[in-house]
């Protein structure tokens, strides 16, 4: 950044000239003059038309200021007082700050004879209202989700944690976008190491335009080449509040409804926030179910390929007889069958996401019924593979975090190749490599498989099993300090 | 970026490798062998190898029933050659891993049961947990019989083996059991017997799994009756006792009592009988009353004891008769006395082992004690008949 500041001139006209020069060829810049009794410009208000609330400016701020200025007998001091009363609360010492205020939906008041300016934020651009999140849908629990406005998002979190220990730090990232980033944490819960690391990594970001938190995520995560996300993102304020209470750090980005939570370990990505709102045994049942579906969505097609091409003896005889009749006359080898159906499924899934909601539904019906049924009827693919692909697809929808689900979806394909090449041996080698990779991953210094740093059974159990709420609190208090500060406990 | 390029290159190379493996067997290219039989043709001095296969048929229009059964035979000088000659007729890859039955024809069993077992154990594809059954007459003919229920023949036989424990009059053992028995040259063993006959009220002959076949010195020596097979179950098959349940019709005074019996325990010891060393066998049975042909006050402990004693005597007689047949007629140690003596009386065994088969075993005195207990008598007290018995 340029360290040499451009000063604000005492002359309004010169300031206007300077701004006109900075915003040359920009028709959205506007100036509103307040004239003195001599007819010369005594003050000017500069803003960008499309960003600010024009109605408030024209109907309230300008008439009030002008009236007060005239009534005081064109006194500059009175103008300053009137400006303060109208909400010009920031004093801008140099032209760069003034420009920043203008581009961030603010209005700036230059007064003749003053070598500083006054600024107020007056955003008037369109915003979505607070709504239910699209991706993280809960049956029970709060329905509110973040929107694109960082101020509102912060408000949603602050009203859930009414404590002075909730701290925030502001960053500005993006040379041109000048996007506001706010890091928030609970002072008494957070690990200073994590906080320091977040600060260090955010300061390394070099971007021209920051439009979404995903860019930050990719920039600051530990292993950007790993398919597994090491940073959790959420649209739910309740989830952020829970995470803050676990000693994690939330990173909010202006213009993005996704808040990043660090550090994130694998269990954070497999358990939805709804777990905390259900009775603990239902929640635990669902956790086990999700582990099974995780395994299914990753391994089922490859296990099917391996068993049906290499290890026919591992299939029970009655099942083998069923497969034998199903596979009769199918021209494609099992591997290609599986690959074609998996790719077809991915195409359908992608299409139904991109299409408008109303059309999307019909695409999935057409895809499932017409393609699946027609492919079987015409003898192109066998029935078992349709069941396998459908089961795999449905299983992958149960993974609550979308980016983890993508990772699993992508890993399925290499696994299928390996299964078709070396059978169960290859699958077990892949599983081994996968476990090694997961064990080597870290998120802001925390092991991704948190169990690695656990020494007590109690910690281990409370990490994977959701205990009844009373014991949950107890377990957190008794956990080792390192863990307590880390992101290892589900908490209320 | 380098890493991404490398992983893409790896993936692409894997795509080319997928399908290159020579071990790949697609389900649509295989024929599942469900039943195998081995016969011997004395005249031509050739083995006949027959398989009953299931394969996916491509020309059937009904997609739900696309299985077709295929029975084919081939002959050769050795079993292996015969099995390989069969490949000239098979349109698909034959897969033996799902074959649960090996049927050996009478001629092959009498000539070289040992060779057949040796071939089966040396072949990697064959599961040692499959059943080895001897067929009465040519196995080829039994293979071509249709199943009585209309199901696959192999499924039907499997069901019959599962039902064995509920009547005890047939005995099927697996290849690995056969191999285990072979380690002791002094003893013989019993495996299943498959025969055909006309069922009651039937119109065509069907296959039956009943009785047993006695294998002695690596060859089929005798057939075993149903009664003797049951005795073998009671005396030998400790691991089946938990499930074994058999019916006996015991005469008691003027009545006949139907009993459902379970084996609890069996013990064997070396004793002196009439001045000679002999074997004393103790059998514990538990009985449940299945039927009475007249009124009997079972609640009276004296009567119950009498009934138990009658059952003891009846069972002792039966088992002794079987034992006499095994020793004196068949002259084959199918109970495993030699195993017992070798393990528990090694010094004695060393002295007698040389003459065990020819002299010692056929003349060894045996004594059987049976202890039947009837712990429950049932709820029904009076069902017709007079009060006096």
Automatic annotation (TrEMBL), chain A:
This is Spore germination protein KA. It comes from Paenibacillus taihuensis. Keywords: Membrane, Transmembrane, Transmembrane helix. The chain crosses the membrane at residues 288-310, 385-408, 415-438. GO terms for biological process: spore germination. The keyword Transmembrane helix applies. InterPro entries: Spore_Ger (IPR004995), UPF0353/GerABKA_families (IPR050768). PANTHER family: LEUCINE ZIPPER PROTEIN 4, SPORE GERMINATION PROTEIN. GO terms for cellular component: membrane. It holds the Pfam family GerA. The keyword Membrane applies. Belongs to the GerABKA family.
Automatic annotation (TrEMBL), chain B:
One of its GO terms (biological process) is spore germination. Residues 210-378 form the Spore germination GerAC-like C-terminal domain. It comes from the Bacteria. Its main location: membrane. Keywords: Germination, Lipoprotein, Membrane, Palmitate, Signal. This is Ger(X)C family germination protein. It comes from Paenibacillus taihuensis. InterPro entries: GerAC_N (IPR057336), Spore_GerAC-like (IPR008844), Spore_GerAC-like_C (IPR046953), Spore_GerAC_C_sf (IPR038501). GO terms for cellular component: membrane. Residues 23-190 form the Spore germination protein N-terminal domain. Belongs to the GerABKC lipoprotein family. Residues 1-18 form the signal peptide.
């Amino acid at each position: 950044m340029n360290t040499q500041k451009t000063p604000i001139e005492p002359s309004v006209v010169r300031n206007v000239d300077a701004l006109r020069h900075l915003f040359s060829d920009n028709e959205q810049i506007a100036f509103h003059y307040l004239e003195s009794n001599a007819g010369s410009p005594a003050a000017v208000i500069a803003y960008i038309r499309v960003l600010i609330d024009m109605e408030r400016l024209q109907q309230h701020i300008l008439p009030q200021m002008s009236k007060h200025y005239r009534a005081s007998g064109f006194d500059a001091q009175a103008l300053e007082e009137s400006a303060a009363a109208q909400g010009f609360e920031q004093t801008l010492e140099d032209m760069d700050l003034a420009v920043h205020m203008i581009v961030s939906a603010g209005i700036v008041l230059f007064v003749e004879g003053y070598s500083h300016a006054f600024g107020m934020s007056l955003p008037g651009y369109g915003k979505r209202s607070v709504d239910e999140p699209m991706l993280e849908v809960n049956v029970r629990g709060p329905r509110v989700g973040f929107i694109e406005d960082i101020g509102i998002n912060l408000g949603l979190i602050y009203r859930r944690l009414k404590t002075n220990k909730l701290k925030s730090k502001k960053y500005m990232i993006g040379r041109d976008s000048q996007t506001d980033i706010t890091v928030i944490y609970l002072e008494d819960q957070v690990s200073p190491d994590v906080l320091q690391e977040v600060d260090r990594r955010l300061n390394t970001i070099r971007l021209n335009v920051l439009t979404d938190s995903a860019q930050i995520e990719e920039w600051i995560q530990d292993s950007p080449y790993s398919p597994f996300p090491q940073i959790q993102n959420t649209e739910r304020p309740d989830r952020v509040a829970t995470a803050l209470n676990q000693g994690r750090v939330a990173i909010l980005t202006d213009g993005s409804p996704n808040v990043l939570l660090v550090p994130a370990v694998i269990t954070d990505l497999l358990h939805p926030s709804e777990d905390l709102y259900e009775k603990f045994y239902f929640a635990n049942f669902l956790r086990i179910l999700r582990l099974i579906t995780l395994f299914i969505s990753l391994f089922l097609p490859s296990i099917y390929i391996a068993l049906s091409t290499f290890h026919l003896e591992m299939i029970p005889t009655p099942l083998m007889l069923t497969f034998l009749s199903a596979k009769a006359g199918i021209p494609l080898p099992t591997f290609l069958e599986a690959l074609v159906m998996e790719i077809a499924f991915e195409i359908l899934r992608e299409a139904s996401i991109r299409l408008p909601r109303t059309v999307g539904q019909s695409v999935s019906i057409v895809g499932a019924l017409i393609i699946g049924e027609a492919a079987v009827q015409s003898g192109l693919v066998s029935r078992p593979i349709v069941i396998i692909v459908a089961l795999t697809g449905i299983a992958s929808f149960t993974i609550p975090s979308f980016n983890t689900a993508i990772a699993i979806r992508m890993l399925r394909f290499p696994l299928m190749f390996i299964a078709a090449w070396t059978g169960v041996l290859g699958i077990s080698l892949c599983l081994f490599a996968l476990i090694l990779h997961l064990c080597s991953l870290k998120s802001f210094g925390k092991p991704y498989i948190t169990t690695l740093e656990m020494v007590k059974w109690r910690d281990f159990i409370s990490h994977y099993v959701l205990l009844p709420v009373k014991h949950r609190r107890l377990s957190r208090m008794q956990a080792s300090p390192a863990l307590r500060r880390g992101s290892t406990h589900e908490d209320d | 970026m380098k890493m991404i390029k490398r992983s893409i290159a790896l993936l692409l190379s894997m795509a080319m490798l997928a399908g290159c493996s020579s071990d790949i067997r697609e389900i649509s290219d295989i024929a599942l062998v469900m039943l195998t039989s081995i016969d011997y043709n004395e005249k031509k001095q050739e083995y006949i190898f027959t398989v009953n296969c299931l394969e996916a048929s491509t020309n059937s229009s009904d997609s739900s029933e696309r299985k077709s059964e295929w029975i084919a035979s081939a002959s050769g000088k050795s079993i292996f050659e015969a099995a390989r000659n069969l490949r000239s007729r098979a349109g698909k890859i034959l897969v033996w891993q799902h074959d649960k039955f090996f049927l050996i024809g009478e001629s092959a069993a009498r000539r070289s049961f040992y060779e057949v077992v040796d071939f089966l154990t040396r072949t990697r594809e064959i599961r040692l947990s499959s059943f080895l059954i001897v067929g009465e007459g040519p196995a080829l003919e039994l293979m071509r019989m249709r199943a009585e229920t209309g199901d696959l023949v192999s499924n039907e036989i499997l069901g019959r083996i599962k039902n064995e424990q509920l009547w005890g009059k047939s005995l099927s053992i697996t290849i690995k059991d056969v191999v285990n028995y072979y380690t002791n040259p002094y003893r013989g063993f019993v495996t299943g017997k498959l025969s055909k006959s006309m069922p009651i009220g039937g119109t065509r002959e069907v296959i039956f799994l009943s009785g047993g076949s006695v294998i002695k010195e690596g060859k089929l020596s005798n057939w075993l009756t149903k009664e003797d097979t049951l005795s073998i179950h009671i005396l030998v098959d400790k691991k089946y006792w938990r499930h074994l349940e058999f019916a006996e019709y015991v005469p008691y005074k003027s009545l006949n009592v139907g009993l459902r019996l379970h084996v609890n325990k069996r013990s064997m010891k070396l004793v002196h009988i009439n001045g000679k060393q002999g074997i004393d066998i103790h059998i514990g049975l538990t009985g449940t009353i299945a039927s009475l042909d007249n009124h009997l006050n079972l609640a009276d402990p004296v009567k119950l004891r009498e009934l138990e004693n009658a059952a003891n005597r009846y069972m002792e007689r039966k088992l002794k008769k079987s034992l006499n047949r095994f020793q004196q007629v068949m002259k084959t140690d199918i109970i495993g006395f030699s195993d017992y003596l070798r393990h528990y009386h090694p010094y004695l065994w060393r002295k007698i082992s040389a003459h065990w088969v020819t002299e010692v075993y056929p003349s060894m005195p045996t004594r059987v004690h049976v202890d039947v207990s009837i712990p429950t008598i049932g709820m029904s007290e009076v069902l017709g008949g007079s009060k006096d018995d």
